Amino acid sequence: MSELVERWRDKQAQLHQQLESLGAVQLDLRVNTEEGILQWVEPDGTPRVKAQARGLCHYSLRFGSVTMAWAAEGNTFNPDLAPIEGMKDVYPGCGEGDAWKLAMQAADAIQAQYIYRVPTLQDFFFFAISNIQTV
Description:
single chain; alpha+beta
């Protein structure tokens, strides 16, 4: 296992522990890309935990490609992530593991605290998150 993957695996374990301690693991997630916030909400919609979020990349299950946040069309992400030197805008022919590694590389470049993957039916969105707190 590469040093990059091992380091981020440890960070992801820390993130899971933190979210679990705040009671967020079993809650629904709401994403507000305009404000750059992820919120974990109670079944009645009451926010319980929030985090600052910056888009890193998007993985298309249908096309097997990764698009970095700065190259995403249609305001998928809050466009505050500048292109990262040495990274392409789009990576075709990728699997989910490749998407994770690209998210890790981007997260390293911006010194992100954690990465959070938001799955949908056709896509995975990867966010750098920080400042996790109860609401």
